[in-house]
Amino acid sequence: MMRTLRRILIIVAVIVVVFPYSWVVISSIKSQAALSDPSRLIFRPTLVNWEAVIDGGILGSAATSIVVGVVTVVIALLAGTLAAYSISKWRTGGDQTRFTVLLSEMMPPAVLVIPLFYLALNAGVRDTLAAVIPAHLTFVVPVVTWFMIGFFDAVPDELEEQARVDGYGRVQAFFKVVLPQVYPGLGAAAIFAFILSWNDLFYALILAGGNTRTLPVAIASFNTFRGVELGTMSAAILISVVPVVIASFFVQRRLIQGLSGGGVKG
Amino acid sequence: MTRWVFMAPLLALFAVFFAYPFGYSVWISFTNLTITKQGQTKFVGFDQYLGLLSNSTYLASLRNTFMFVIAAVGLELVLGMVIALALHRQTWLKNVTRSVLLTPMFVTPIAVGLMFRFLLNQQLGLIPRILSVFGITIDFFGPRLALPSIIAIDVWQWTPLMILMLLAGLQSLPEEPYEAARVDGADAWFTFRNVTLPLLRPVIVVAIIIRALDAFKVFEYVIAITKGGPGTATETIQYQVYKTGFQFFRLGEAAAMALVLVVIVFIIVIIGYRRMVPR
Asked: Quick check: A119 contacting B, CB < 8 Å?
């Protein structure tokens, strides 16, 4: 009885999740005429929407998003991993440091976007990657640091001590012995941080809404300038969604450990 | 010494891209900085903040944002708990269903907003079409239902994060209290109320904080669907800041709007943190 109820609940939940996806997939291969009847399931599939969206330069926007994401994540990993180790194992700055990392992760982007916009405007870098990347660093760096604190907390302290006994210096012990232990966590943090950067609309729209459009900005533009072009919009949505959903399968398992950032021992 | 060398890159980034802009933002909120009139910028003290008190659109956006956060996070917590409990004991198709159920939280929010905008659209949407077969006409983005619809969209996207956090919490609970409850003949509901909930409390508090702080930033669904309307029914703070600062170019006023939100968020974090770590 309970088991049947549980199964029904899970099936309903899966349907609620999958239903919008399937509607977008179907819309992306419908012709303009077929789109005007949303309940029509029998139609001749067409690739015109996909051709139109690709001719419209969506792949250029995807490339911009990739560049922003990769540069942001690399910088964040370099700075965040070192600092996370220092905070986790050497208690640098006491417990307040952890809390500050968490707080900065929670900073509403509405606050930082105003000075960042004004500074970019005066420096003449508005609408370039030089404006977007620093903005993305403001939320990607804290997330990566918070994640890595959690992963380093899970590494036993004896590992570093043992390495020191074996004649390694502190820095060597970190790079040769401890760091390899958290490679899976590092990978998960990198993918998750990349997804956050890839999904950002707010900063990208305000700081680079013109020529250097990232993918979310390009998708948002289907809404405003061209009226309703449901088919091309659906294709554009899929171009943005499919890669992250695939990437998400690789990080789901480690996400919990990262999110709790050593705050809750699971 | 080494510990500070390891911290140095982070501290440098923090100072340049975080602390400095934050301080600058506070300063801007005390001026009348407007992009189109940069020459006339002057210090105005608390005028921008005082102006917000009589700005009815801003007050509406504060109220909407709070209702949004409370309703969305509340629903996500309840739904997330029910689904997490169901998944916890599940063995059948375990990995596939979990992976699929978690996907919405990774989808670009603007795409989610547009997806539902057209799914619920009167002319082109499938859901109103299905409802019309039963003779039901619902305007999902009309004055009464616009905010609830936006909340429902947030629930679709973010209940998965709740499920993820609660499920991990459930799996880390000790077995002994449950055996004791079974020996005492407690029923499922009693066990949930008196064993699961208290043990899960720290996880629930963290989950609520993480979700609530993120929900305060609601922006994409509004810009994708309602643009704050009808009237001020779906104005939110982040959308107000966007409009005031980057469509009307009044940066000073926008900065004050955003900083009020920070103060509120900060208070919530402090209260939540105190509850999480009892003294």
From this structure: yes
Closest CA to B102 of B45, B159, B181: B159
Task: Give me the residue label for tokens 């993480």.
Answer: B210
Position A228 confidence tier, pLDDT thresholds 50, 70, 90: low
| Rounded alpha-carbon distances, angstroms, from residue B276 to A91, B73, B170, B268 | 20, 18, 17, 12
Task: Tell me the per-residue pLDDT of A56-84, one tens digit each, with 9 for 90 and over.
Answer: 889 999 999 999 999 999 999 999 999 99
Question: Hey, where are the domains in chain B?
Answer: 25-54+249-279, 68-235
Q: Does A151 touch chain B (CB under 8 A)?
A: no
CATH of the domain at A251: 1.10.3720.10
User: What are residue B31's DSSP bridge partners?
Assistant: B43
With beta carbons under 8 A apart, name residues in chain B contacting A79.
9-10, 12-13
Determine, yes or no, domain membership for A72.
yes
- Calpha distance A104→A139 (Å, rounded): 8
Q: Report the 10 Å Cβ neighbour count for B25.
A: 24
Residue B279 has pLDDT above 60, yes or no: no
In a domain? residue A50? no
Does B110 contact A219 at a Cβ distance shorter than 8 Å? yes
Mean pLDDT, chain A, rounded, equals 87
Most confident of A154-163, A224-233, B157-166: B157-166
* Cα(A43)–Cα(A30) distance, integer angstroms: 7
Nearest Cβ partner for B130 among A39, A260, A263: A39
**Sign, Cα dihedral of A207, A213, A218, A224:** positive
Q: What is the mean pLDDT of residues A73-98?
A: 89
- pLDDT (tens digit, 9 = 90+) per residue, B190-222? 999 989 999 998 888 888 888 888 899 999 999
Q: Is residue A200 a contact partner of residue A214, using CB atoms and an 8 Å limit?
A: yes
Is the Cβ–Cβ distance between A186 and A257 less than 8 Å?
no
Q: Does domain B68-235 have CATH number 1.10.3720.10?
A: yes
Residue of A nearest to B242 (CA): A110
pTM for the full model? 0.90
